[in-house]
Amino acid sequence: MLRWAWMLGGLIVWFVHFMGVYGIASLADVVSEADDPVWRMVGLAFSALCVLAALAITVWAALRLRRAGDPSARFGDQLALLGGGVATVAIVWQALPTLIGY
């Protein structure tokens, strides 16, 4: 199970980010307005934490990949690297409207 969590770690972070930003926007819409600057900063802070988590997975996977290991572990590290990279790009892409003000 840990190997699956490692290989899907970046995608899990992306999922948590998507659900978290959706929850923050929904809560902001109920409490005040969704485009209130305070709620936008909360969303950006959450996005920054998620980007850091995805980058950490990406860097860690790249470092593990540099060490030669058995082929199944190497395949898992490659998937973790790919998932972390995709998650990093996707989280930044999803945070851009909040950052630029739309």
Model description:
With 102 residues, the protein is an all-alpha fold. The protein has 4 helices and no strands. It has helices at residues 2-7, 9-31, 37-66, 71-100. Helix 2 runs parallel beside helix 4 and helix 3 packs antiparallel against helix 4. The longest helix is centred in the middle third of the chain and has 30 residues, at 37-66. The radius of gyration is 16 Å and the shape is elongated. The relative contact order is 0.19. The model has no long low-confidence stretch (mean pLDDT 91).
Short description:
This protein has about 100 residues and is an all-alpha fold. The chain has helices at about 1-5, 10-30, 35-65, 70-100.
Helix content: over 70%
Shape: elongated
Alpha-beta classification: mainly alpha
User: What kind of sheet is the major sheet?
Assistant: none
Please write the string of helix (H) and strand (E) elements.
HHHH
Portion of residues in beta strands equals: under 5%
pLDDT < 50 runs, ≥5 residues: none
List how many beta strands DSSP finds.
0
Features:
about 100 residues; elongated
